[in-house]
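Protein Record: Sequence and Backbone Structure Tokens
======================================================
Tokens: labelled as protein backbone structure tokens, with as many entries as the chain has residues.
Question of interest: how does this chain fold, as expressed in backbone structure tokens?

___
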Amino acid sequence: MSINIVKKAVLAGFVVILLFTAFSAGKYIGKTEPICGVLNLEQGKPEGVDFSLFWDVWRILQEKYVDKSKLTAEKMVVGAISGMVESLEDPYTSFFTEQESKEILEDLSGKFEGVGMEVGIKDETIVVVAPIGGTPAQKAGILAGDKILAIDEKTTRGMALDKAVKLIRGTKGTTVKLIILRENWEESKEIKIIRDLIEIPSYKLEFKEDIAYLRLYQFFSKTSTDFTNAVNEIVSKNPKGIILDLRDNPGGYLEVARDIASWFIEKNEVVVIEDFGNGEQKIHKANGRSFLKNFPMVVIVNKGSASASEILAGALRDDRGIKLIGEKTFGKGSVQELQGLLGGSSVKITIAKWLTPKGNLIDGVGLEPDVEVKFTEEEMEQKKDPQLEKAMEIIKSISN
């Protein structure tokens, strides 16, 4: 299966499988033998790159490695490519085999098998970006910001993000054991989660006291289409205001974030700025739907609001002065491009960082809320939602 289009995604980690195969090379001077089992040695080769060390190691392995059955040219090439990508030390730039590429497309369609949580790397630690509502991870008590110290007794210290995701994800009905450390815990705890089929909804819409409460769960391929139904219902009921809940929304496609922002702001208003790091920038503007631009609004965010969620929240605050309520967001402000390759494989590359319409960098920083509201342990146990309560209080005050 090949990927025929290039998609730009702003993902905080994907709930997908990434295969990590380390490649290392050492210097060796010895006799040379013909290289066997490899084609297209010159095709696409950049000028001025000395591959003699690479081929020295290749020959040495072919000549001397004890288990010849493991010397599969295809696997060695894939390992070399993975190692090349890994050398960038960017947790969001990865190479995928054909099977992994298929899994990525399944995940971005909003349906896959696993535990239902987004993970990322923060301060060189594997952390939960957000559990997805109604999934095994959320039901097991996993929270945004939880540090994952071990997966099935394998320590995550120094572990690549893609390997961590691979260990966590698995077949429906199987169990994964996580060692979790939470900010206010004195010691870590073990949490067991039974994997299941994960189907992520696009949104949930309720009307509370003549206020539209709209929770957006992700920015995947079907979200733009689904969101039209939410817009139609809101417009038909003409509420006094809208609460947009982006908590624990780990992001998705940049294009989808722009499309959804376009419902809330004027045509040609800036949604986000892509900064390619070489003085080049691309400005993404609203495409002119604007059906919801006149409704009073507030937005709820937390530490699980990442990437595309931060784009949308940042655009609404910068363009319309809409208040953000809750906690500081995750701070994942880089843009990835998924590029299809020969044979159905693909590579996901960080190509840019994004800025809010006013030029604020979010990557590694996050969005500070205008009104900070945190949960206490007691409120969590009692299933109270002080952030939503504050949002209701504020939207009522500005919509009357």
